[in-house]
Amino acid sequence: MLAPQANRTMALGKWEEYWQENMIGFHQPVVHKMLESNIDKVLAGRTGVRFFFPLCGKAVDMKWLADQGHSVVGVEISEMAVKQFFEENNMTYSEEPVPAIPGAKVFKSSEKNISLYQCDLYNFSSSIGGQFGAIWDRGSLVAINPKDREKYAALIISLMAKDCRYLLDTLLYNPELYPGPPFFVPDAQVQSLFGKSCDIELLQSVDALTDRHRGWGLDFLTENVHLITPKSV
Fold it and tell me: Does the keyword section mention Metal-binding (predicted)?
């Protein structure tokens, strides 16, 4: 089932174009229900958790977590998305270069513990951002080019602290009917990407088909949420 999308690629510039042209149907103006309903499992009683948001866009989830006393680090290619996040949430921010990544910038909220790196995700690393106690992956693994998934998984695993709890949102549909993105990521691939070093638990599986997806030609869409944790050595 992976074959129809195996060679699909989207240049980074294309994502920047989507933001410039406001073609951002993937952005949600409210906190994602899968994060809200599973937040207790992610926190597991912890306070002041460091959250990582890969391909963060301007997700309102980041402010929601920061308002609860957690810290947030995001990575996003579009400078416009990053600036919109701060402006739409009425936050002042500073902007500075990231010496370790030529051309990259980091935008930091003055009021909340939020730092957003504007750069290629694969240029980010734990030496730049440290490791994280939690990761919220919605619209990231499903958005990257399918051929890059092993590289992506290796980066995510390298960013996980020993107590990290990684919440991953994936989509199941017939990839012969829609080219993506968002791309089809079956549970078996989640297992092959993360199963060697992590335990994986399926927390939720819901019918997520809407008229928007029917417009893509889909006849079913299942949204799965996985909790991924490093195996204790």
Answer: no
